[in-house]
Amino acid sequence: MPRLTRLLSSLSSALGPESARLELKWMKEAAERSSGSLRLPAMVERRLRGEPLQYILGTQPFGALDLLVRPPVLIPRPETEDWTLRLSRLIQPSPERPISLLDLCTGSGCIPLLLCNTWKPGSVNAYGVDISEDAIQLATDNAHRCGVHVPAEMQPRRYPFNTFKPMLANIRDPSFLLSAELRPPFHVITSNPPYISRQDFENLPPSVKGYEDHRALIGDPTVYPEPPCSESGKGLTFYHTIAQLLAQQDILTDNGVVALEIGFNQADDVRQIMQNEGKLPKTEVWRDPWNRDRVVFAGR
Amino acid sequence: MQRGFLQFATALRSRRLLCSRCSRSFLRFQHAEASNDAGLSSPIVKLIEKKVEERNQLQTQVNALEDMGSADSKRLMKQLSESEPFWNAWQDWSRTIQLLRETGALLNDPDPYMRSMANEEYASLQSQVSELLQMTFPTLVVPPSKTAHMSAIMEFKAGVGGSESALFLAEMMRMYLRLAQTFRWKTNVIASNQTENGGVKDAIVEIMGEKAYDTMRFESGVHRVQRVPATEANGRVHTSTVAVVVLPLAEESNAEAPDDLFSMDDIKIEVMRSRGAGGQHVNKTESAVRLTHIPTGITVSMQDERSQHQNRRRAFQVLRARLMDRKLTQEVVDRRDVRRNLVRSADRSEKIRTYNYAQDRVTDHRLGLSLKNLESVLEGDSLRKILDALAKKHQDDLLQEELETS
Ligand SMILES: C[S@@+](CC[C@H](N)C(=O)[O-])C[C@H]1O[C@@H](n2cnc3c(N)ncnc32)[C@H](O)[C@@H]1O
C-alpha cells in the first residue's frame, strides 16, 4: 500500500488529484486483467514520462466498442465518439435499403466500426482509407475485435451483416480514386482528417506531439500541392482535398451526406470550402459536448 | 399438551393473527366446550369469509348469465376465477375447523386408547389451522409485490468516522457482493471512490436479478460499526457509520429512452472540466458527466468509466433508479393519506443496524434482534437470516394494513 501511495502522489502532482485517482484505478484494473504482462509501477512510470494513458492501457472505449490503440495511430477522441453516435441516430439504413459508406483518414477505424456496430446487420458496407500502414493494420485488427466482417472484394455486396474494408491509400494522390479501386457512389462520406495548424502544432502537449503520428495531426503537410497562400497555415489542406474529391461526378449519391470533423475555429472556412469547392450547398455545424464547433455536415 | 396448546394460542395472538377472544376460544376447544365457531372470527378469517361471500354472489351472477360471450360476462367470469383461491382456502378451513371440533369432543373420552388417538389427531389439525392462518390466508390477502422483478442499485456513503468508516464500507460492500453471489445475482461496481489505505469513501453497486430489490431494500439506512480501528494505538473503541440507499432498477434496454419517469427536456447534461481546443489537440481522458433532473433537482455525477458515453449511460441508469425510488415512496405516502398506514417508507437517516466487534454481535434495531457471531453476518449466512426476518416483518405489516382497512 505505501508504494501505491507514493505512485498516487507523484501522479497527483503531474495530473491533479482527481485525474490521478481515476487513472491509477484504470491502470490497476488493466494490470489485474493483463495477468502479469502489465505491471502497475511500470505503467505509472510511463504515464509520468508523459505517455498517453490510452497507449499504456492498450484500449479505448468508443461508444459501445472497446477498441485497440497502438502508437503511433491517433487515439480516438471523445468529440469524435459524440458526433459518430449522433450520426448513427440521424441516419438509419436498413437491410432492405443498405448503404455504402467511405471514411477518409480512418486511423483506428473507430468511425465506421461504431456505425457498423450501431446500425442494423446487413445495412452498411463501409470502406476506410489511410496513408499509414500502422493505421490500416490496427483498423483491421479492430474490425476483427469488434466482430465486423472484412470482405476480400471491393464491390459492395448484400451480406446479412455489416462490413468494413480498410485500405492503404493516399487521398492527396491525384489518381487516388482510380488507384484505390473504390466503387462510388457512396451514400455517406465521413472523415476526421488532420486539421492542426503548424502554429498550434508547435504548442501541442507532449503526450500528443511526442507520441501520436504527426501525419495524423498536421493539417498542412508540406509536400505538394502547396495550400493557397491566402489561408496557408490554417490547417485546412485536407478539406480542400476532400472538397475536390466530392466535386467529382458520382462520388456521392444524389441525397448523399458528408460529415467532417473540424478544429474548434474552422467551421466557417470549412463550410465555405464545402459549398464553393465541394458543390454541397447545404451545410450545418454541429457542436461537441464542450460546446465547441466540431463537425461540418453537408449535402446537396 | 395443555401447555403446548396454550403456547400455540398465545403465539398466534402475539402474531396479531388471533385476538384475545379468539385465543380464549381456542382454549375452550381444548376442553371440548366450544359449541359454535363464532370465536374463530379473527380479522383475517373474517376478511376471507367476506371475500368468499363476494365470490358466491359472483357465482350467482355468473349462473344467471344469458350471453356467455359478452364483454360483461367475460369480466365476471374472470373475477370469479380470480376469487377461486379464496373459495378453496375457505373449504380447507371449514373442513379443518369441523374436524377439530369433532376431535375436541373426544379429548376427554373415557377410553384411553381413544383419548391418545384424539390427542394425536388434534395436534395435527392444530398445525393445519396455524398453517392456514399464518401462511395460506396472508398470502391470499396481501397483494403480490409490484417490484419483485426489479434489480437494485446500492449506494454507499462513508459517514461519521473518516477513514475507519471508509474501511468498514469496503467490508460491507464485500459482504453484499458475496451475498449476491449466493443468490446468483450479477453484480457490477459502477463507481467506487477508493482511499489510499484500502477503504472506500463512496460507491455505487448494481445488483441484477429477480427479487434483488425486494430482498435488499430493507438495507437502506445508517449502519453503525463499533470497534477498535486498526490504526488506533491505545485500543479505544470508535463508532463509525455508513449510509446505504437501495434503489429499484427497472429492466431497461436503453436507460436514456425517456418514459413516464422523465422527459428529455427536463434533463441538463453537462460534461465536467474544459478540454481547451479539444479534438485532435488533446488526448487527455475527460469522461466525467453530470446529469441534472431539473424538476426534482436530482443530480448524478459519473466519472468512473473511461468514456463519456459509458458514464452517461450509467448516470442515466442511476437517475432512473432515483426517480423510480421517489415514485414508489410517493405511492406509499399517498396510500398513507387514504389508509392508516403501517408500512412506513424507509427513513434513510435512521440507524438500522449495529456491528459491535467487541461483543461479537450484530443488532438489527428494527427487528430488536441481536445475533452472535459477527463474522457469520459478514460471510452472509446470518445476513440472510436478518433479511428473511425483515421480509417477514414487512409482510406482517402489509397484512395488518390489509386487515385494518378492508
Ligand atoms: C486525425 S487522424 C483520424 C483517425 C480516425 N479517423 C479518428 O477519428 O480517430 C487522421 C488520419 O489521417 C491519416 N492520413 C494523413 N494523411 C493522409 C493521406 N494523405 N491520405 C490518407 N490518410 C491520411 C493519418 O494516418 C491518420 O490516421
TrEMBL record, chain A:
UniProt KW keywords: Methyltransferase, S-adenosyl-L-methionine, Transferase
Source taxonomy: Eukaryota, Fungi, Dikarya, Basidiomycota, Agaricomycotina
InterPro entries: HemK-like, N5-glutamine_MTase, SAM-dependent_MTases_sf
Protein known as: S-adenosyl-L-methionine-dependent methyltransferase
Domain of life: Eukaryota
TrEMBL record, chain B:
Organism: Somion occarium
Pfam families: PCRF, RF-1
PROSITE patterns in the record: RF_PROK_I (PS00745)
SMART domains, per the entry: PCRF
Source species, domain of life: Eukaryota
Ranges where the Prokaryotic-type class I peptide chain release factors domain occurs: 273-289
Gene3D superfamilies, per database record: 3.30.160.20, 3.30.70.1660, 6.10.140.1950
Assigned protein family: Belongs to the prokaryotic/mitochondrial release factor family.
InterPro entries: PCRF, Pep_chain_release_fac_I, Pep_chain_release_fac_I_sf, Prokaryotic/Mito_RF
Keywords in alphabetical order: Methylation, Protein biosynthesis
Keyword Transmembrane helix: no
Protein name from the UniProt record: Prokaryotic-type class I peptide chain release factors domain-containing protein
PANTHER family: LD18447P
